[in-house]
Amino acid sequence: MDFATLIQILDSTLRLATPLLLACLAGLYSERAGVFDIGLEGKMLAAAFLSGAVAFVSGSVWLGVLAGIGASLALSAVHGLASITFRGNQLISGVAINFLASGLTVLVGQNWFELGGRTPALTEGRFQPITLPLAETLAPVPVLGPIYSDLISGHSALVYLALALVPASWWLLNRTRFGLRLRAVGENPAAVDTAGVSVVGIRFAAVAICGVLCGLAGAYLATALSAGFVKEMTAGRGYIALAALIFAKWRPFAAMGACLLFGLLEAVANRFQNIDLGVVVLPVQFMQALPYILTVVILAGFVGKAIPPRAGGEPYVKER
Amino acid sequence: MERMPKWADVALVPLMSLMLAFAISALVIAAIGENPWAAIRTMVTGALGSTYGWGYTLYYTTNFLFTGLAVSVAFHAGLFNIGGEGQAALGGLGVALCCLFIPWPHWSLALIAATLSGAAFGAAWAALPAWLQARRGSHIVITTIMFNFIGASLLNYLLVNVLKPQGSMDPATARFAPEVRLPGLHEVLAVAGIPFSKATPVNVTLLVGLAACVAVWALIWRTRLGYEIRAFGKSEKAAVYAGIRPVRITMVAMLISGGLAGMMAINNVMGEAERLVMNSVEGAGFIGIAVALMGRGHPFGVLLAALLFGFLYQGGAELALFTSIPRELIVVIQALVILFTGALDDLVRRPVAALFRLTRKETR
Amino acid sequence: MEPLGGVSPDGGRPAAVAPSAPWAIELRGISKAFGPVQANRDISIRIARGSIHGIVGENGAGKSTLMSILYGFYRADAGEILIGGRPVQIPDSQAAIRAGIGMVFQHFKLVPNFTVLENVILGAEDGALLRPSLTRARAVLADLAREYDLDVDPNAVVENLSVGHQQRVEILKALFRRADILILDEPTGVLTPDEADHLFRILRGLRDQGKTIVLITHKLREIMEITDHVSVMRRGQMVATVPTPETSPEQLAELMVGRKVLLHVDKGPAAPGRTVLQVENLALTDAQGVQRLRGINLHVRAGEILGIAGVAGNGQSELLDVLGGYARATGRVTVNGVEIDLTGRTGDGRSRRAQGIAHVPEDRQVRGLILDFAAWENVGFGYHHAPEYQKNALFMDNDALRADCAAKMARFDIRPPIPALAARNFSGGNQQKIIVAREIERNPDLLLVGQPTRGVDIGAIEFIHKQIIALRDAGKAILLVSVELDEILSLSDRIAVMFDGRIMGERLPSETNERDLGLLMAGMAG
Questions:
Q1: Helices (H) and strands (E) in chain C, counts
Q2: Touching check for A190 and chain C: CB below 8 Å?
Q3: Separation between Cα atoms, residue A316 and residue A186, nearest integer Å
Q4: SS3 category, A276
Q5: How large is the ipTM?
Q6: What is the C-alpha to C-alpha distance for residues B340 and A232, in angstroms, rounded to an integer?
Q7: How far is B201 from B272, CA to CA, in rounded Å?
Q8: Of C9, C66, C177, C248, which has the fewest beta carbons less than 10 angstroms from its beta carbon?
Q9: pTM (predicted TM-score)
Q10: Which of C398, C425, C442 is the last residue of a domain?
Q11: For C10-48, what is each residue's pLDDT tens digit?
Q12: Contacts across the B-C interface (CB distance below 8 Å)
C-alpha cells in the first residue's frame, strides 16, 4: 500500500466516521442522563430524509440541516414523552422510533417525489468542501503536505463541527453546572430531585440535545456524504454509533477514538474486498461485522468492563 | 384494590392502543392525499376477500406466530430478545443445510428434521447473548442487536462464497429437491374437500405454528419450567430465594426463544422460497416484538396479533399494487403499534384506570 | 460513650428558647391519605428553635410521610406549615431548601461516583461554571469541618467512603445550603455505635449553634440520649409531645404501641432435644470486599427458638442468606448432622428445602412473594417441585395448588380468602401470613425466620408469634432474626447477639434485659 492510498483511506475514514461520531455523541448525552436510546438509527434516518428533501426544494443546505434537526427533534420528543413522561420502556420506544422513521421516510418520500422513497439528487444544496488556509501552498511539501491538504483540509463544515464537538462535550459534561446535573441524573436521579432540581427537565434537555446531534448526523449523510436521500441510507450506522458508545464507555474522547476506528474499518472494507493476511484471507463481510463483534467482546467484559450509567433505562419514580 | 378488571387489562387497553395506532395511520394516509376508508377497503378485500388473499395473509401470520412466540417467551423471563431477526436468519441456514445435503425420501421426515435443525441453529444464535447476560451481565438487548448484524454478515459470506451454486450470479443456495417440498394449505384442505387457492405460499407450517402456540401456552402456564420462567421474570431476587437458578433460566428461556425464531425458517425457506436467499427474514423478527407486545405475551393473544399483522402485510402489498401508498405504510403501523402497546402503554392505561375508579365510586 | 438508655449529661438541658420566640417549625392539622390508607391524620406539632426534637413511632406510624411533606416530596391533603412563624407552601424540595430545611434520608441521596465536593454543590451551584462553586464549597467545607467535627475529604469519591462518612456528606449538603432545620430519618440504622456517637456529637454541636434538629427514629435509647423533646406517633396520629427528661422508655413504648407492651408471649418452657443446626466458623466476604460474617459459631436444638438480636446490618441478613442457600460462604454447617453446601455449587434454595430448611425471609415483598402472582401460585413458591403439586411428569397440578391455598387461607385466617387475588393486593400482615403458612406447613426440621412482624399489624403479630411457638412445641428448631428487642425477648429460648459479623455473646431471656443486650449490640463486653 503506497502513501497516497493510505491518505485516501484515512481521508475516507474521517468522512465515514463523522456521522458515527455525531450520532455517538448524541447517544452519549441521552444515556449519560439515564435515557437509553436505541432509536439513534431512526432519528438519523428521518433527519437524512427531511434534510435531503428540504435542501432539494429550497436549494439551501442550511435550511436542509435545520429541517433535519427538526425531524430528529420530533422523534426525540416522542421518545421523551414515552420514556420520561409516561415512564414507558425506553428500549421498546427506541425500537418503535426506528420503525417509524423507516416507514415514514419512504411513505412521505414516495408521496412527495415519486422516486420510490429517494429524494432527487442534490446539485446545489450540498455541503461543499472547505479548503483550509494555505492548503494549496503546502500541498507540494513531502509527507506533511498531502496530510494537510488532502487529509485535514477539504472536508465539509460538519466534519469539523463534529470534531469540535468532542472537546466541547467533554467540557460541557465535566466543567459546567448543566453537565454535573446531567451526569447526576444518569447515576442517581433521586440525588438531583432532593437537591431541588427537576429530573424531568434535565432528562428532556439531554434528549433534545441528542435529537439535535442526530439531526446533524442525518443531514450529513444526505447533504455531505451523499447527494440526496436514499431509502434506508443510514444502513445500521445508528447501531454502530451505539456500539461505539459502549466501546467508548460513554466518554467523549474515547467515543471519537471508537468512531474513527469503526470508520476506518468501513473505509478499508469499501476499498478492499478481501484482505489477504498471508495466513488467512479476511472476507469483506468480516470487516463489516467487526464493529459489532468488538462491541460484544467489550460488553462481555473480557477487555475492560463497560459499565453503563447506573440509572440508565429506569424511569424515575419519586420515592422516599 | 384492583385498579381495573382483568378483561380491561388484557383486552380493552390493547384494543384502545391499537385503535389509537390505526387512527394515526389513517391521518398519515389522509395526509398523503389518499382516502383512508378506501385504503382499508382495498386492504380487506385484498387480504381477506379471497382464498388467494387469505393464503398470503396466513403465510405471513405463520412467520409472525413463530417470532411473536419467541419474543413472548423471553419477555416472560424478563428478557427483551431483539435478536429474532438474526435467530430466524440462522434458522434458515439450519433448514437449508438440512434440506440441501440430506436426500430425504419424504417431506414429512424432512419437515421434522428441518424443524429441529432450524430450531437448533436459532437457539445457537441466541446462546451466546444469553450466556453473556447470565454470566457477564452484558445487556441482552445490545448483544442481540449486535448478533443480528453479525448474523447478516455471516449469511452474506456463506451465500456469496460457500453455498452459491457454481456459475450462479444470485447469492442464494440451490433449489431444494422436490421431495422436501411442503404441501400447501390447499392440499391439506382438499382432504377435507375445502377448495383453496393453489397460488399461495401458505403451507403445513401453519399447523406447526398453531401447535407451537399450544406448546408455549402449556410450557408457560402448566409446567414447572414455565412457573420458574415467569417467577424469574417478575423478580430475580425472589426467584433465587425459591431455589430457581438465574443462569439456568436465562439460558433455557433464550434457547427456547431463539429456537422458536429459528423454526420460522421452515415456513419461509422450506415452505415458500425452497432455497435460502439473502435477507430471507424480511423483518419478521422485528414484527415479532410488535406481535408479542400486542398479544400481551399470551399465545392466544400472539395468534390474534399475528393474524392482524398477516392481514396488514398482505393488505399492504395490495395497497402498493392498486394505490400510490407504498408497502412501508405497514412499517409505520407496526411502529405505532409497538409505540402505543409497548412504550406508551400508560398513555391509555392511566385514563382507563381513572375511568374505572370513577365508575366504581359512583356505583358505591 | 454515654450510659445507654439513661439521660445523657446534657440531655436534660432545656432548649435555649425564649417563650416568645417563634417556633422553628409549626404544623397545623396536617392530613395525608394514600388511597384508602390515612398515613397522617390531623397532625399538629410545634418544634422549638435550637432544640433536638425526636419523633418516635412504630414502622408505618406515619413519621416518614410527615417529614416527606415537610420536605416537599408529598403535598398534604389538608393543613398548614409555618416555618419561623411564617406560613409557607412547600410544593417541592426546592421550596423546602429555600425555607431553610435540610433532610438526611434513610437511604442517602448521593451520586456514588461523584466526589464529595460535587455532591455538595449539586443543585446549589453558584453559576453556569463549576469551578467557582467548587472553590467556594471547599472553603465552606473546611469551615464546617472545624466548627462541627464534620471532617470528610472533599476530593474523595463518595462510593469509596464508609456509610458514616457518606452520612456526613448528606449533613454537609444541607449545611452548605444554609439549612437552619435539619431532619434526619432513622440516621443510626446503618451506623456502628462509634459512628452513631460521632453523629450525636455533631448534632449537639449544631444545636448549640442554634440549628433545629428533627430526629426520626424508632429507637427509644437514642431518643433518651440526645433529644430535648419527643413526640410520639401512632397510626398516623400524633399522640403526645413531652420534654424528654419527663418521660421514660417504658412510657414512650406504651404510647407508641397504644397499650402495655406485651413483653411476654404465652409459651411454656422449651424442651430442647438433639442439635438440628450446627454452624462452625462461618465467614463471608461480600462483592465489595467487606467482611460481613467473621467466624460465626452457633447451634439450634430441636424444640427451641434461638433469637439473633442486633442492630440491622451487622451480618444477620447474610447469616440467613447463607443458611437459606443464596449466598456463598466458608465454614461448616450441618443440619441433622448432614453437612450442607456453602459454595453455591450444589447448594441453593431448592436443595436447602430438600434438607428440611424452611425460610420466612426478611423482605417478604422482594424475596418471599412474587407480588404479581396470584395467592395460589405463591403458596407453591419454592415448593413447586413438591410431588403433591404435580399432575404428572410434565405438568403441575394448578387445581391442587388452588385447593391448598384455600385451605391455608382458612387455617391462617388470611383475608380476603380469594386464592386468585394477586399477592400485591393483600395487606402486609396477610402477605406475611401467606408466607408463614407456606413455610410452617411444610413441617420443616429447621425454620429460619427474618423480621417476622415488620410492618405487620398487631393482630397478625400475635397470630404469627403463636404459630412460631407451636412449631417449636412440635419439636422443630427455629432460628429467629429480629431487630425488635421485644420480639427477641418474648419469643426466644436463648438469645445470641450479633455485632459486626460476630456473635458477641449468648444470654438466656430470663437472665438478661434490654440494657444488657443493648451493650452487646453496641459491641461492648461479651
A1: 16, 20
A2: yes
A3: 10
A4: strand
A5: 0.90
A6: 24
A7: 5
A8: C9
A9: 0.86
A10: C442
A11: 333 344 444 445 789 999 999 998 776 788 999 999 999
A12: 69
